[in-house]
Design brief:
By secondary structure, the protein is mainly beta. The chain has a 4-stranded antiparallel β-sheet. The chain has a 4-stranded antiparallel β-sheet with strand order 5-6-7-8, with no helix packed on it. A hairpin with a 2-residue loop joins β3 and β4.
Length: 144
């Protein structure tokens, strides 16, 4: 888990910024899936430097207890306010794996996930889906 987060941060920010976000593992479990077991997560800020970031999307995949490989998807928006960088709330309606290509706009953000195509086995999604997340409603809407 820590390796996955570190890789995501390094890819976005470079090694110097990777430590400045604090304990993301604990924060994401606490905010997105309390009591859950994380299988992996993604942290996508609008700026690599924590002091400059004003928004971030986190996506966490949590194991479904009792299942062999089932997981749930939890997404949440984080935003800077007068008191600092905080969890703004859960994002509803976002599906897929491998979230990527975030683009932050004034009133929304967009990103892409991998979704199963019509003939795909559950293990191997092959279709890219673009999503829009409204900052005011915290709702994700499929764009394509």
């Amino acid at each position: 888990m820590k390796t996955l987060l570190a890789c995501c941060l390094i890819a976005l920010a470079g090694p110097a910024c990777a430590q400045d976000w604090g304990d993301l593992d604990s924060a994401l479990i606490r905010d997105l899936a309390p009591g859950g077991e994380s299988l992996g997560s993604y942290w996508m800020p609008n700026h690599a430097d924590p002091a400059e970031a004003t928004r971030a999307l986190a996506v966490l995949y949590a194991h479904i207890p009792g299942s062999a490989s089932g997981f749930t998807i939890h997404a949440g928006l984080y935003a800077r306010d007068a008191e600092g960088f905080r969890y703004a709330g859960p994002v509803s309606g976002l599906f897929g794996t491998e979230p990527r290509e975030p683009v932050f706009h004034a009133e929304r953000m967009e990103l892409t996930t991998s979704m199963p195509g019509p003939d795909d086995p559950r293990c191997c999604p092959s279709r890219a889906q673009r999503w829009s997340i409204d900052y005011a409603t915290l709702a994700a809407t499929a764009l394509d």
